[in-house]
Amino acid sequence: MIKKEEVYKIGLFNKPHGIHGELLFTFTDDIFDRVDCDYLVCLLDGIFVPFFIEEYRFRSDSTALVKLDGVNTSERARRFTNVEVYFPVKYAGEANPDKPAWNFFVGFTMREIHAGDLGEIIDIDDTTVNVLFVVKLGEKELLVPAQEEFIVEIDQMHKAITVDLPEGLLSLDTPAADDKL
Asked: Rounded distance, CA 70 to CA 175, Å?
């Protein structure tokens, strides 16, 4: 049985495409194309189920058409409409180090070596060239640069990432004493 901590979400099957069982796949991470892994994991009725990829082709930088082994008709493909797609954590380490799979860290606790626990990484903001971790800090969201040089340790077993952030980065949105007057 596949456990939640063994996979991380990379996208969603939207709808069938054509009559031969292809699925439109919207993804946030193209790791399935960058590592040698033959399958994707789908969340069906609360259970993580692996499906072998027969073939796929990209339509854009965030969508692909995917053909799963054993899904040969549009009727069978319809069962995958709006199904979440996950990728096995054990293959994430094989990804090209020049393009880290930042979505892998969603759900991890972020610790800063000087400030301690910052909170849970709830999202990745990759809308700009500088990718950011979105960290839930109490009622606020903290944006932390996703830079490899800031990462000190990754503890996959405990889903924790330890960072060493530049001095002052955590207090950027805290008003200075002069601003309070």
From this structure: 58
